[in-house]
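Chapter summary example: a protein plus flavin-adenine dinucleotide.
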Amino acid sequence: MGIYIEKFYSPQKIRDALDLISENDSKILAGSTSLGKAKNMKIKKMVNIMKLPLSYVKEDEKNIYIGATTTIQDLLENPIIQNKFPFIHSALLKFGAWGIRTMATVGGSVFTSFSWSDVTPLFMVLDAKVFIISKNEERLLPIDNFLDDKGEYINGYLLKEIIIEKDGCGVEREFKKIALSSFDIALLNFAYVKGNDFIRISVGARPGRPIRLKQAEKDRSLDTAIREAKLGDDFRVTKTWREKVLRSLLSEVIA
Ligand SMILES: Cc1cc2nc3c(=O)[nH]c(=O)nc-3n(C[C@H](O)[C@H](O)[C@H](O)COP(=O)(O)OP(=O)(O)OC[C@H]3O[C@@H](n4cnc5c(N)ncnc54)[C@H](O)[C@@H]3O)c2cc1C
């Protein structure tokens, strides 16, 4: 059995969506690229959020605001991203499986933050904030804090928007993805943003989810970075291979 859905809702107003997801046994559906593959799942109330007015990229003087249902392809084609944030654009061009780009959403990508996610390590080095809402409250959280405490937000909360400060791209930046082909998920991915007096480094394709290497950012030490990354083996490559590659990539950045 795949997914058995008792009732399917497609609200057009955020208020209605929040009412629905505040009820027990409800589940949010966005681009469906992850949820659609679920097996043996019974969902009483599936709440499709793709009709909500949350597909946008906006800007003001300080920030850019990316709505949760914006797809990766929407972001790639957005003129604000293309013209003003080429770093985001070029990083997202590495998101594999082109067909999936037209379905996978920014909110779904951050919410799942799978080990192989390209979106999460990118947003981590940009120091993105996650704006979540429920029927009774709103919270603006640094992406790391959101992911650390995600368990709290699984029921009743909607990830509404990602907020990135415009000057968050520093003076030097890079996103690297190593994969078997341009369609594949990462064997290792890593990103950094350097400012005059700071560096942010993230790494993905590790056990669990992508992380920021906060201690290594302070120590500027390769050994600390490798220890902190806690890379692992899987059926594709070994931990040793990942450590060697990460060390080599980082040596140009923090040595
Ligand atoms: C073949 C394939 C290749 C892929 N390649 C890559 C790749 O190279 N790089 C990469 O980064 N990703 C890749 N992905 C995408 C990634 O694995 C996830 O499937 C995707 O990011 C999930 O987004 P979605 O919008 O489809 O979420 P859905 O599948 O709709 O939902 C996933 C989960 O998130 C929750 N959710 C979704 N949106 C919200 C929200 N706004 N608020 C609260 N909860 C929410 C849902 O309830 C569900 O639990 C790939 C996926 C596939 C299938």
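Key point: Residues 3-48 form one domain.
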